[in-house]
């Protein structure tokens, strides 16, 4: 708040308080010509009379005390512009104190899990339960309550990881986020191979995943275009590059859909997927707990895997 606005607020507050005091003082006085307290001209139901009696003194004193209390309150809690108040109270300070108190409680709760490996935490039932709760509160908006993702959001329950599924890479994804950029290649490819270039490359991509025969006409046409443009990120064999977040095109999974139309849309217009960084929001220990929950989804214990297969 600027000095000018601060002065304006102070003047406005004092004017209102003075106005209340003056109004109270003015209305409680009797003036020449006023009816006597016993006089009345209003009678209802024969015996109900309205007199001109003043308010009780205790009531008037109560009003004055209210004004005095208001002044004291504003002086103590800082109600005069930028004046901080004698009590140095502020809503921001109270919020900070509450946050510090709750942070201390959280720190005590999470202290046993600090610095532990994600795979180690994944074997701790309590740690996984905490990770599940944090996931539901923070990550489920994008990845879904079951962590199976959606169009544009990866499924965290399988073994397909565009940025790598090791403990360190999972933790890095949570802490510092990821940005996956697929450039727009439609214009470039059409300039190289004509109007069917994007269709041909998309078909070849589907052939890499076994969705269409390798000898398909469009797939054969797209192979050369793929090797001229796409290999830089996805590799000659289509296995991708986890350092770049370039997906493996041979596993049959496409985050934005593996239909021909969807793949063509990706090639034509590109994609820009963002995983926000959670280092500031969660801190390392809570990120490790979330990582342990995610790890447990894609790396279930051997006993749990056998049980699921038997069912």
Automatic annotation (TrEMBL):
One annotated Gene Ontology cellular component of this protein: plasma membrane
Residues annotated as binding heme c 1: 139, 142-143, 275
Bilayer-spanning residue ranges: 6-26, 58-78
Cofactor note: Binds 2 heme C groups per subunit.
Cofactor: heme c
Binding site for heme c 2: 182, 230, 233-234
GO annotation terms (biological process): oxidative phosphorylation; proton transmembrane transport
A GO term, aspect molecular function: metal ion binding
Pathway: Energy metabolism; oxidative phosphorylation
Keywords tagged on the record: Cell inner membrane, Cell membrane, Electron transport, Heme, Hydrogen ion transport, Ion transport, Iron, Membrane, Metal-binding, Oxidoreductase, Repeat, Respiratory chain, Transmembrane, Transmembrane helix, Transport
Domain Cytochrome c: 126-209, 217-298
Top-level taxon: Bacteria
Compartments, as annotated in UniProt: Cell inner membrane
Keyword Membrane: yes
Family the UniProt entry places it in: Belongs to the CcoP / FixP family.
Self-association state and partner proteins as the record states: Component of the cbb3-type cytochrome c oxidase.
Role played: C-type cytochrome. Part of the cbb3-type cytochrome c oxidase complex.
Protein name: Cbb3-type cytochrome c oxidase subunit
Originating organism: Luteimonas granuli
